[in-house]
């Protein structure tokens, strides 16, 4: 961190008179009297004023005692899709079950139809207001999954739209191919045949186009078996792509252990994971991504075993899971509050979960997620008296300024 280097250092911009939550080490890494300096979009110093070198800055910004955290990282979203599912929400409120709605042509299949019908430009345009809501809360890095096309043309279109969002907004976007999300109607119930299509046609084309940073799948009774997911993981591995998994959301199919066996970046949801699965995640270093928005929205009652995750030293991230059907959430601040109130996560766990651990879950902790020299200068500057305010408030946004790559 350039500490105690008392030489002179050139920088483009520095933020002084600030309190920092650097998120380095295990806790929040609090620095009461701190500054951050950047050059060419990267941090050159972040720490205590007393440890800073002499800085020659083109521009100095007085933070007036405000708090600076790393820019927030939303490590699990399905934010690119066509249409919406508000009508299904009404049906559910009137007593219809998720299965009944799906059988009547709703659920993921209704989003699939709207996504197939939309142009790439329309997908970008409809996603931007949702993306902007997250940017407005200090998000600087976001993962976007495909998975609402379920055919090659639409999956490619969705991934291109996701990449485009990172070009038209000051935002780092990582993309994930989720072809194994649900079974399209034209598969006529034949899951094995569809998985063969995902592995033999879709995934190779996605990889060849360079449109995915990782590959995901939905391992669940209403989706795909561990054996089918394993075929997808083998195909991803053959093309040098990292994997992650929707695991143990509605039942325990031992998806977490499967994800761990393939060195997955993350296993997400995990409401029904058991101790064997938790131990496997711990041994592999796979991050547990908890998604309280979905837990809340589908009125789930089976909570993820947070105490087990802690006992075994599994890293915990939090994300919005922004999607049309089960988590139409576009607030990481609210996700943190839900993580604390519904899952009893601590303030430190919530803040680490949307910065350091979320970056780890995307495989980009080397470049974002903490305030350290050499990383991108992605900052969120807050009008707060203490970090707990970011978790405690509901429907209130204390963001003062957001900095992406030093700007």
Quick gist of this model?
The chain is an alpha/beta fold and 407 residues long. It is 36% helix and 23% strand.
Q: What's the arrangement of secondary structure elements?
A:
Elements: E1 8-21, E2 30-39, E3 42-48, E4 54-62, E5 67-70, E6 72-74, H1 86-93, H2 98-103, H3 108-117, H4 120-135, E7 139-145, H5 152-168, E8 172-180, H6 191-208, E9 214-219, H7 226-238, E10 242-243, E11 245-247, H8 255-261, E12 266-269, H9 275-284, E13 287-290, H10 292-297, H11 306-311, E14 316-318, H12 332-343, H13 347-353, H14 356-361, E15 379-382, H15 389-392, E16 399-403
Parallel strand pairs: 1-4, 1-5, 6-7, 7-8, 8-9, 9-10, 9-11, 11-12, 12-13, 13-14
Antiparallel strand pairs: 1-2, 2-3, 5-15, 15-16
Helix pairs in contact: 4-5, 6-7, 8-9, 12-13
Architecture overview:
This protein is of the alpha/beta class and 407 residues long. The chain is built from 15 helices and 16 strands. Strands 6, 7, 8, 9, 10, 11, 12, 13 and 14 form a nine-stranded parallel sheet that branches. Strand 11, helix 8 and strand 12 form a beta-alpha-beta unit. Helix 4 crosses helix 5 (152-168), helix 8 (255-261) packs parallel to helix 9 and helix 12 (332-343) crosses helix 13.
């Amino acid at each position: 961190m350039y500490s105690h280097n008392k030489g002179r250092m050139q920088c483009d911009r520095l933020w002084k008179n600030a309190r920092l939550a650097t998120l380095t080490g295990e806790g929040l890494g609090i620095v009461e009297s701190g500054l951050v300096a950047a050059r060419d979009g990267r941090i050159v110093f972040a720490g205590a004023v007393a440890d800073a070198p002499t800085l020659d800055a083109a521009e100095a910004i007085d933070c007036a005692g405000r708090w600076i955290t790393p820019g927030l990282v939303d490590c699990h979203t399905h934010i690119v899709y066509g249409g919406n599912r508000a009508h299904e929400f009404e049906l559910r409120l009137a007593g219809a079950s998720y299965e009944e709605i799906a059988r009547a042509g709703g659920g993921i299949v209704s989003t699939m139809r709207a996504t197939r019908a939309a142009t790439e430009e329309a997908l970008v345009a409809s996603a931007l207001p949702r993306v902007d809501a997250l940017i407005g809360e200090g998000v600087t890095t976001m993962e976007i999954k495909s998975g609402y096309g379920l055919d090659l043309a639409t999956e490619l279109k969705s991934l291109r739209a996701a990449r485009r969002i990172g070009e038209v907004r000051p935002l780092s976007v990582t993309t994930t191919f989720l072809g194994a999300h649900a079974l399209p109607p034209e598969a006529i119930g034949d899951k094995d045949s569809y998985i063969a299509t995902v592995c033999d046609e879709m995934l190779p084309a996605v990889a060849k186009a360079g449109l995915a940073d990782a590959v995901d799948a939905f391992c669940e009774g209403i989706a795909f078996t561990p054996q089918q997911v394993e075929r997808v993981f083998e195909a991803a591995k053959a093309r040098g792509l990292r994997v992650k998994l929707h695991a143990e959301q509605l039942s325990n199919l031992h998806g977490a252990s499967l994800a761990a066996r393939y060195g997955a970046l993350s296993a997400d949801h995990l409401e029904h994971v058991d101790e064997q699965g938790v131990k496997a995640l711990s041994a592999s270093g796979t991050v547990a991504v908890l998604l309280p928005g979905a837990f809340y929205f589908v009125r789930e009652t089976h909570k993820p075993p947070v105490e087990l995750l802690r006992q075994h030293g599994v890293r915990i991230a939090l994300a919005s899971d922004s999607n049309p059907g089960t988590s139409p959430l576009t607030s990481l601040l609210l996700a943190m509050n839900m993580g604390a109130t519904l899952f009893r996560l601590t303030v430190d766990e919530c803040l680490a979960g949307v910065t350091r651990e979320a970056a780890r879950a995307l495989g980009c902790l080397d470049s974002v997620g903490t305030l350290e020299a050499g990383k991108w200068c992605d900052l969120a500057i807050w009008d707060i008296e203490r970090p707990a305010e970011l978790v405690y408030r509901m429907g209130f946004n204390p963001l003062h300024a957001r900095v992406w790559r030093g700007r």
